[in-house]
Amino acid sequence: MTDDDMRHAPGRLSHDRYCDEIIAQTDLLRSHLTGADLGMAVPTCPDWTLRDLAAHVGGAHRWVETIVRTRATERVSLREILSAVEPVRDGDPAALDAWLAEGARLLVDVLREAGPGLACWSWGWESHSGFWARRMTHETLIHRADAALTVGAAYEAAPEVAADALDEWLRIVRFFQDAGIKEDIAQLKAGGRTLHLHATDTAPEIAAEWLIELGDDGIAWSRAHEKADAALRGPLTDVLLTLLRREPLTDGGRVEVLGDRELIDFWLERSAFA
């Protein structure tokens, strides 16, 4: 991990915890899918059904397992990995459930064997197995939210996991800005105006407050309790889901807006990842 990432991710979890969470989040995702109509549309992932969501998560697990296991130095074709999913996507729900469980187990077995420092290709700012353990934890965590919201199941994330997911998301936004990957994200510049994120339900050691500066060269952030031009305040899980466009920001909702609502909307409209 670089000094920059250490500064931006004070609550980064251990490699073993990420591995544990991949299994735990996959199991919870599977529980949301059990007995559900897998043809249901997923409101937070336009054009996806629950089957598509499951295939995406399971395909991502197998893709990363291949990258880490083969110590890939160049991009592995996700399309080739997903081509093997079609029979499972269209088959028996029990087979899909078993396939999801197996993919998570295979991925975690490889990650545990590799440890966090194995060099391998990634699309991001770090090129090692630790990057992928963290990324697959939060990929699974957030897509579990998509499934839970679709079927009306309760959803909660452990505070240390939710805080780390938010840290990682901010790092992704800055990476996309620097790499020029998404035009909307590149536009997240507002002359140094600031956003404050404040979780209202966490212990002090979680340090679940963030100050985000929308500078003209890209965003910068820190864990801090400071006044800002606009703020989002509420339970940590809800703040996370609002930032990742999984929960709408509505008057009287669980997340309160303070200050410049237009600045909050400016951020939300341009920070979508998928």
From TrEMBL:
Keywords: Isomerase. Residues 20-148 form the Mycothiol-dependent maleylpyruvate isomerase metal-binding domain. InterPro entries: DinB/YfiT-like (IPR034660), Maleyloyr_isom (IPR017517), MDMPI_C-term_domain (IPR010872), MDMPI_metal-binding (IPR024344). Residues 160-265 form the MDMPI C-terminal domain. GO terms for molecular function: isomerase activity. The keyword Metal-binding does not apply. PANTHER family: CONSERVED PROTEIN. This is Maleylpyruvate isomerase family mycothiol-dependent enzyme. It comes from Streptomyces beihaiensis. The lineage of its organism: Bacteria, Bacillati, Actinomycetota, Actinomycetes, Kitasatosporales.
